[in-house]
Design a protein that fits this description.
Layout: H1 2-14, H2 19-30, H3 39-55, H4 60-70, E1 94-99, E2 102-109, E3 112-115, E4 118-120, H5 123-131, H6 137-140
C-alpha cells in the first residue's frame, strides 16, 4: 500500500513540475534527453515509467509481440487452452440418470466406473454406451451444466 501511495504521489507531482524539471526527471528515469517532446507526452511517459519501475513492465511475451508487430511480422495468436478441472468423485458414489424413460445407475470405483456389471475407464464411455452417441460423461450425468439444453433429454 505504501508503494502505491509513493507512486501516486510521484505521478501527481509531475503535473506541478516545470518543463525544465520534467526534462531533468526524464533524464533521471529514462537516461536520455527528451528533446522537444511536449509537456503532456512527457507527463504521460514519465507516469508510465514510474509505475513500470515500481510494479514491473510488460511481460517478455508482450515485448516480443510488440517487437514483431513493429517489424511488420503478423502477431502470433496464442490461444490459451482451458484448464480442465479434474472431477473428483468419492469411491462408491452412485450416479443416477433417467434417459428415454429408463433409469441408469453408475457406481464410482477407485479405477473407473461400474455400469451394467461392466467396468469403464470414463463416464464418457458409459454415456456413449447408454445413448449410442458422443456425450460428455460429466454433462450427461449432470455434474456440469448442459451447454445445449435442446439435446435429447427424454
Amino acid at each position: 500500500m505504501q508503494m502505491q501511495i509513493t507512486v501516486l504521489k510521484q505521478i501527481d507531482e509531475l503535473n506541478r513540475m516545470s518543463m525544465v524539471q520534467l526534462r531533468k526527471r526524464w533524464a533521471d528515469l529514462l537516461g536520455t534527453d527528451p528533446g522537444r517532446l511536449g509537456r503532456n507526452y512527457l507527463i504521460r511517459r514519465l507516469a508510465y515509467r514510474i509505475q513500470e519501475l515500481a510494479f514491473g513492465g510488460l511481460s517478455r511475451d508482450a515485448r516480443r509481440e510488440l517487437s514483431a508487430t513493429a517489424n511488420g511480422t503478423p502477431p502470433k495468436v496464442v490461444v490459451q487452452a482451458r484448464k480442465r478441472r479434474k472431477m473428483r468423485l468419492a469411491t462408491g458414489t452412485r450416479l443416477l440418470r433417467e434417459w428415454h424413460g429408463d433409469r441408469y445407475e453408475v457406481i464410482v470405483k477407485e479405477d473407473g466406473f461400474l455400469y451394467d456389471s461392466k467396468h469403464y475407464k470414463s463416464l464418457t464411455a458409459v454415456a456413449m454406451t447408454i445413448t449410442g452417441s458422443r456425450w460428455s460423461g460429466n454433462r450427461f450425468f449432470g455434474l456440469i451444466p448442459e451447454r445445449n439444453p435442446k439435446r435429447g433429454n427424454a
